[in-house]
Amino acid sequence: MSLSKPFLNVFLSLHRFYSLFSDLAEMWSSYPFREIIERARKGVDAIYPADLLKPSIMLLKGANIYKQPTRYATLDELLLLPPAFTPLRLKKMSELLREPIFSDVDLRHSVGGFNVNMPAVVASMGSVQVANKISLEIARGAARIGVPMGIGENVATMWGYSRRVKRNQPSFKERVMTYLESLDGNVGGVTIQQSVEDAYNELWNRVYSDPDIEPFIQKGLIGLEIKIGQGSKPGLGGEVRLSREEAERLMDKYHLSEDPRSSARESIERHSAPGTFTPEILRGMIRMMRNNYPRCRIWVKLGPFRDLPEVLNVLTSEGVDAVWIDGREGGTGMSPYASMRHLGLPLVAILCHISRQLESRVGSTSFIVSGRLYDGGHLVKCLSLGLDGVAFGRPVAVSAWVAGSRGVENYLKTVELEAKMLISALGKYHVRDLSREDLGCLDRDIAERLGVRYVYS
Amino acid sequence: METEVNVELQRLAEVLRHSWKMVRTPRMKTILKVQAVACDAMRSYLKSEGFIELLPPIIGPVTDPGIRGAKQATFDYYGREYKVMSSAILYKQAAMSGLGKIFFMSPNVRLEPIDSALTGRHLVEFVQLDLEMAEASYFDAMAVAERLLSEAVNTVRDTCQRELELLGRELLTFKPPFKKLTYDETLEYLRMRGVKMRYGVEIPWDAERFLSKVIGEPFFIIDYPRGARGFYDREDERRPGILRDFDLIYPEGYGECASGAEREYRYERVLARMKETGEDPRKYAWYLEMLREGIPPSAGFGMGVERLTRYLCGLEAVWEARLCPKLAGIYSP
C-alpha cells in the first residue's frame, strides 16, 4: 500500500515547514532573545513583566513562574492519603446518630485571634489600582463568608483615608467599613498594614481613634499587620506603576523612578521602602503595638526569608496573634523579573524549614501560608502540616473581577466544599483532627523533612 | 450599637454640652483655685532650684510620637503638614541644650482612642509641667519630681484648708524620698497578688490603680523594658533591654502622676529606636539634625497639671479639673 503522490508531496512540504519552524523555535528558545530585545528597546520598563499586556491584566494573571529555568516542588508533590479504618467517623456517627457525610465536616476555627467559618484568609491587597477598584466587592464577599481580610499598605496614602481622592477608587475607610458592616456576627476580622509612608500619616493611630471603627475594636474584630516582606520580592518594597498625573499628586510622599513633571513616559513606578528590621527592632515594635493598641490583634506578614526559624522564634515568644508566610510563588503581579527568578524560597521549602516549629507548637500564635494556593486540596494539605489556615490573593481578585462579591462568595464556597470533601475522605470531621498522618509525599527528601510518609515506601 | 459604654458616653456629652457654665459653680471655682495654688507652689520651688520657665512652642512639623495609640492633631500649614504638640519633649531637649535647667507649662493635644473618655484620667487637651535638666541622671530627675510633688501637695494641704473642706478632701503629708520599685519587682508584686500581665508592656490602668491603692504612699516604678516607651528614653548600657526611666504614681488609686527618663541623645541609637515604632526618620529631620550636631545628655519628666488637681481635690474624673474640658469623641465647647 502506498500513499498517493500528491498527498505525499503535501506531507513532505508540511514537514519541511515544520522543521524550519522548529529550528527557528529552538534557536529562539535556546537563548533569551526576546527578553534582551525588550531590554534594548524599552530600557528599565522591561524589567517588569507588565509591559506586554495592560498592567491590570498582568496583575490578575501573575507571572509565569513555573516555566522558569529552575523548577521547584509545589504542594502537588504531596498527596492526601485516606485510610479505610476511620475511628473518628465512628465517633461522629455516634454524635449524629447516622452515617456522617462530607457536609458534616466542621471548618469553623480560630485564626490569628479571629473566629472564622473556614480557615482561610483573604490576602492583604494594597493600593494597586486593579486591586483597589474591586476591593469593596472582595470585602463584601469575604465578610459574608466569614473569613478575615487584610488591607495592604499605602491605601490611605494613595486613595484617601475616608474621602476618595479619585472618583472610581474607594478610600481606605470604605474598604474597612464595607467589610465590617457586611459581617454576620463576630466571625471574621480585618487586618490593616501600615507602610513607612502610611506611618507618616499615623494610619494605625487614626484607625484606633476613629469613632466609626471603635465599636468593632470593642468586639475584637480589628488587627494590625506588620509587613516584613512578600513572596515574589522579599527584601524589596511595594512597587506600583502610576499614571503621570497620579505620580505628580504623590511625589512628596514616595520615591518615584523619575520626576513625573519632566518625564515623557506614560507611567512611572512608585517605590516604597522595604523597612529595616533586626530582632531588637521587631521585638520593640511588637511591644509598642501591644502598648498602643491593646485591643487589636497583631499579625505579621513575612516573605520567603532564609532566616524564618529565627524570626519565628522572636514572633512566637512575643506572642503575636498570627504569622503569615508568603512563598516565592506569591504576589507575582508587579515584581521585577529578576526578583521572581532569583529571590527567595518556594513554599514547600518554607514548610520544610519551619516543619519543626509547626510540630512543636507552643503558645497561641496562628500560622498561615500563601503563594499560588487556590483550591480546597491546598488548604487541607496545609492544615494537615499543622498550619492554621491559608491566604488567597489572586483567586479572590479574579473572582471579584469576573462576578463581583457574588463571585468571591462562590469561589470561597467551592474551596469550602472541596475541603469538606477531602477532610471527610480522611475520616475526619474537624480541622484540629488533621495531622501529618494524612499526607504522603512523592519525593523522599521532602517527605523526610516534612515528617510525612514517602508514598513509595 | 447601644452598649453600656455608649450610654455612658452620651451622658457625659450631655453634661459637657454646657461646660462653659460650670466655672460659675462653687465646686469648680474651688477646684480651679486649688489648681492655681499648686501651680504657684511648683513654680516657686523650681525657681528656687534654678530652673527657668520658658514659653512652650505649641505647633511644629513633628511632635512626641510616644503617646500610646493616641493620634496627633495634624493641620495644613501653608500647604505643608504641621502638628499640634502632643508633648513638648523634642523642644524641651532643644531648650535644655541652651539653658540647662528649664521647664514649660505646656499645653498638649492628643486625639485619644474613644475608650479613654471613660477612664476618668484622660483628656484630649491638657497641660503638663514639662521639665528637662542637662547633665542629669534619672535619679536626679526623680529627686526633683518627688520634691516638686511634695511641695505642691503640702502647700495645698497647709494653705487651702477651707477649699479642701468644701471638697470633702483630706490630704496625706508627702515625705520624700519616695519608694522605688523596678518594673520587674512591680510585675512580681502584682503576680503575688494574682494580677497577671505580659512582660514588656505598660502596666495596664487597672493594675496601676490597684497598686496605687494598696501601696498607700506615692512611689516610683523604674526601669521599664525597652519597647514600652518612646525612642527618647535611654537604654541602660550595662543592662541591655532596660530603660533608665520612671513613672511616679499617686497613692489612693489615683494612678500615674508623672513620667520621665534619662534621654537617648546619640543620633545612631535614636535612629534605630525610631524603627521600632515604625517611624519614618524623614519626618524628624530637624530633631535628628540637632542630635547629629550633638546635645548634652539630660533627664526630665512631665507632670499632668489636671491629674495633679484631680489628686489634690479627690476628684472622680480629671475633666473636672479643667475649664471647658475636651474628652475623646465628645464634641463640646
Arithmetic mean of pLDDT of chain A: 89
Order of helices and strands of chain B: HHHEEEEHEEHHEHHEEEHHEH
Summarize the amount of helix of chain A as a percent range: 40-55%
Q: Give the class of chain B from helix and strand content and strand pairing.
A: alpha+beta
What distance lies between the first and last C-alpha atoms of chain A, to the nearest angstrom? 52 Å
The number of helices of chain B is: 11
What is the annotated CATH architecture of chain B?
Answer: 2-Layer Sandwich
Strand order of the largest sheet of chain B: 1-5-6-11-10-9-8-7
Question: What amount of the residues of chain B lies in strands?
Answer: 15-25%
Oligomer state equals heterodimer
CATH fold title of chain B: BirA Bifunctional Protein, domain 2
Largest interface: A-B, 38 and 35 residues
Radius of gyration of chain B: 20 Å
CATH superfamily of the largest domain in chain A: Aldolase class I
Large-scale geometry of chain A: globular
In short:
By secondary structure, chain A is of the alpha/beta class. Chain A folds into two domains: 58 residues; 346 residues, Aldolase class I (TIM Barrel, Alpha-Beta Barrel). Chain A contains 20 helices and 16 strands.
What does this molecule look like?
The complex is a heterodimer of chains A (457) and B (333). Chain A has helices at residues 5-30, 33-42, 55-61, 87-96, 129-133, 135-145, 155-159, 172-182, 196-200, 203-208, 214-218, 244-249, 279-292, 308-317, 337-342, 347-353, 355-359, 376-384, 394-425, 444-450, and strands spanning 78-80, 109-111, 114-116, 120-125, 149-151, 190-193, 222-228, 239-243, 255-256, 267-271, 297-302, 322-326, 366-370, 389-392, 439-441, 453-454. In chain A, helix 6 (135-145) packs parallel to helix 19 (394-425) and helix 18 (376-384) crosses helix 19 (394-425). Chain A contains 20 helices and 16 strands. Chain A is of the alpha/beta class and 457 residues long. In chain A, helix 18 (376-384) links the parallel strand 13 (366-370) and strand 14 (389-392). Chain A is globular, with a radius of gyration of 24 Å. Chain B contains eleven helices and eleven strands. In chain B, strand 3 (74-77) and strand 4 (80-84) form a beta hairpin. Chain B is globular. Chains A and B meet through helix 9, helix 10, helix 11 and helix 13 of A and helix 9 of B.
